[in-house]
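Quick one, C-alpha cells below. Sequence please?
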C-alpha cells in the first residue's frame, strides 16, 4: 500500500469521527467517546444501523490512536544510525588508557 493510500484511509477515519486531520489524541478520544455512546447498540436498540456504525467508529479510533501514538513515541532522528555496537563507558576508558600507556594492565 502506498503512502497516499494510507493517508486517504487515515483521512477517512478522521471523517468518521468528525475530526480535522490535525486533531490531537485528546480530541480524538473525546470524539470517540461521544460517538460511541451515541451509536452504542445497547443504548440504541431501535436504531438498525447502530451496530455497523459503532464498529466503524471503533475501527477509526483504533487506527487514529495507533497512528498518533506511533508519532509520539518515535522521536525525530537527529543522527545517522551506525552499525556499531554500544560499549560500556569503562571499555572506552580502558581502550584510551591502553592506547597511550600501553597494555600494561590485565
Amino acid at each position: 500500500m502506498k503512502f497516499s493510500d494510507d493517508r486517504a484511509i487515515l483521512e477517512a477515519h478522521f471523517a468518521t469521527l468528525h475530526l480535522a486531520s490535525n486533531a490531537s489524541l485528546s480530541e480524538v478520544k473525546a470524539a470517540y467517546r461521544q460517538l460511541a455512546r451515541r451509536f452504542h447498540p445497547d443504548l440504541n436498540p431501535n436504531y438498525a444501523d447502530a451496530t455497523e456504525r459503532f464498529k466503524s467508529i471503533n475501527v477509526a479510533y483504533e487506527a487514529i490512536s495507533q497512528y498518533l501514538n506511533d508519532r509520539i513515541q518515535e522521536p525525530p532522528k537527529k543522527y545517522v544510525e551506525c552499525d556499531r555496537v554500544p560499549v560500556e563507558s569503562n571499555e572506552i576508558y580502558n581502550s584510551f588508557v591502553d592506547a597511550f600507556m600501553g597494555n600494561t594492565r590485565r
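The first helix runs from residue 3 to 16. The CA atoms of residues 16 and 57 lie 7 Å apart.
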